[in-house]
């Protein structure tokens, strides 16, 4: 696949007429446009059998590039040379008719991808089994949930014996079980030497599966190279700010007796950080101010990953930390240190304070701070616990 200095621009009108009356009243008013440069001089060669990752923030041009590769968009400048059969999984619902059943859509979509009607019919059972939609094959697609539609679309795409597979954010909608099936499918594709172009925000998947990766920002290619280096660059671009700038998602408690004023992560040097290497020492911190006397408060920390799974919870009550009495106007900074054995991704910190053994919640601030753990080696699972292999050979 050769992408030769490709650029793509969209025209965005300033004023749009939505009714016939408006057009009649303003017949000579010209429409002015802004230009959105979605891709700027993208120059890239992807080798046969390569698993290539494309990463970047929302609106950076990732999906536009994939649509150019799939022939949905025509570049304004440059050219794309693609050898072999292409199977795209680009956008939720693309290529499907919402008024047809899953049964009809599978066959039609497979034929559109180059299969004969016989081949499409033979692949039907495999698609349904992978998507786990046996009970819904005669349901119209417009009645499917987004997760069901993603499973159907990806299952259809991978059943085509294609030379090149384009995959856009397949891991963003599916549940954990479907994501695991996708990972198993990625392993199969790599083992078969298929060429895969993979767009994702999951840096652990990039480091685990990709041979090379590219970071794109506002249509410009910032870097192409080894997956770990691209993951680090994406991390610096996306999570380089201080953690206290992270958007808080919820707050509970009346905060009259005390409140959580701030929360952050620290590295081994005691510095605030939004990034840390896997296996380094990581400290969770929270600043609490008391507005009235509180006896034996319970301070807690909860850490969640980027898909909302709780990774770690601890409280002073569980750890039998002696607390005592805190007076009005007093500040306290609570710290908990752990080894960052979690898998590479973004994690958020929810600090809390309560009394009466945790029964009376005074203040909880969800996702108040964030840190990005970047990988230092290939891992899998939610955590990478310290371990060693021991082999005992017997004849």
Topology record:
Blueprint: E1 2-13, H1 20-25, E2 33-45, E3 51-55, H2 62-70, E4 77-81, E5 86-89, H3 102-112, H4 117-131, H5 146-159, E6 164-168, H6 176-191, E7 195-199, H7 203-209, E8 212-217, E9 220-225, H8 227-239, E10 250-252, E11 258-266, E12 275-277, E13 281-290, E14 294-295, E15 298-305, E16 310-315, E17 325-326, E18 331-339, E19 345-355, E20 360-366, E21 369-374
Parallel strand pairs: 3-7, 3-8, 5-6, 6-7, 12-21
Antiparallel strand pairs: 1-2, 1-4, 8-9, 10-20, 11-13, 13-18, 14-17, 15-16, 15-19, 19-20, 19-21
Helix pairs in contact: 3-4, 3-5, 4-5, 7-8
Which key terms come to mind for this protein?
alpha+beta, six-stranded mixed β-sheet, Coagulation Factor XIII, Chain A, domain 1, 395 residues, seven-stranded mixed β-sheet
Structure in words:
InterPro entries: AAA+_ATPase, ABC_transporter-like_ATP-bd, ABC_transporter-like_CS, ABC_transpr_TagH-like, Bact_Polysacc_Export_ATP-bd, P-loop_NTPase, Wzt_C. Pfam families: ABC_tran, Wzt_C. Belongs to the ABC transporter superfamily. One of its GO terms (molecular function) is ABC-type transporter activity. By secondary structure, the chain is α+β, with helices and mostly antiparallel strands. It has a domain at 243-374: abc- transporter (atp binding component) like domain (Coagulation Factor XIII, Chain A, domain 1). It has helices at 20-25, 62-70, 102-112, 117-131, 146-159, 176-191, 203-209, 227-239, and strands at residues 2-13, 33-45, 51-55, 77-81, 86-89, 164-168, 195-199, 212-217, 220-225, 250-252, 258-266, 275-277, 281-290, 294-295, 298-305, 310-315, 325-326, 331-339, 345-355, 360-366, 369-374. The strands form five sheets. Strands 10, 12, 15, 16, 19, 20 and 21 form a seven-stranded mixed beta sheet that branches. The radius of gyration is 26 Å and the shape is globular. The protein starts with a strand and ends in a 21-residue tail after the last strand. The model is unreliable at 241-245 (pLDDT under 50).
């Amino acid at each position: 696949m050769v992408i030769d200095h490709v650029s793509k621009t969209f025209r965005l009108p300033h004023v749009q007429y939505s009714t016939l009356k408006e057009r009649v009243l303003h017949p000579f008013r010209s429409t002015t446009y802004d230009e959105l440069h979605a891709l700027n001089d993208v120059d890239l060669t992807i080798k046969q059998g390569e698993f290539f990752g494309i990463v970047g923030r929302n609106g950076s041009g990732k999906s536009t590039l994939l649509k150019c590769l799939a022939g949905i968009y025509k570049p304004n400048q440059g050219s794309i040379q693609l050898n072999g059969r292409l199977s795209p999984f680009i956008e939720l619902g693309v290529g499907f008719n919402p008024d047809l059943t899953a049964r009809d859509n599978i066959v039609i979509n497979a034929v559109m991808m180059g299969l004969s009607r016989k081949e499409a019919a033979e692949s039907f059972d495999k698609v349904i089994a992978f998507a786990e939609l046996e009970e819904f094959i005669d349901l119209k697609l417009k009645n499917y949930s987004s997760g069901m539609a993603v499973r159907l679309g990806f299952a259809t795409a991978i059943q085509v014996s294609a030379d090149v597979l384009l995959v856009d954010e397949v891991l963003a909608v599916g549940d954990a079980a479907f994501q695991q099936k996708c990972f198993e499918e990625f392993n199969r594709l790599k083992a078969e030497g298929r060429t895969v172009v993979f767009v994702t925000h999951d840096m652990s998947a990039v480091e685990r599966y990709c041979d090379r990766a590219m970071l794109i920002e506002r249509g410009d290619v910032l870097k192409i190279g080894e997956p770990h280096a691209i993951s680090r660059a994406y991390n610096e671009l996306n999570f380089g700010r201080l953690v206290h700038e992270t958007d808080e998602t919820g707050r509970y408690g009346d905060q009259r007796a005390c409140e959580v004023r701030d929360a952050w992560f620290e590295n081994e040097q005691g510095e605030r950080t939004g990034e840390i290497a896997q296996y380094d020492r990581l400290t969770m911190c929270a600043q609490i101010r008391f507005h009235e006397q509180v006896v034996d408060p319970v301070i807690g920390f909860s850490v969640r990953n980027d898909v909302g799974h709780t990774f770690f919870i601890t409280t002073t009550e569980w750890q039998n930390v002696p607390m005592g009495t805190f007076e009005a106007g007093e500040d306290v900074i609570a710290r908990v240190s752990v080894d960052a054995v979690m898998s590479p991704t973004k994690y958020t910190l929810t600090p809390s304070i309560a009394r009466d053994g945790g029964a009376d919640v005074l203040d909880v601030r969800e996702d108040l701070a964030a840190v990005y753990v970047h990988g230092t080696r290939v891992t899998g699972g939610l955590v990478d616990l310290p371990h060693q292999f021991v082999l005992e050979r017997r004849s």
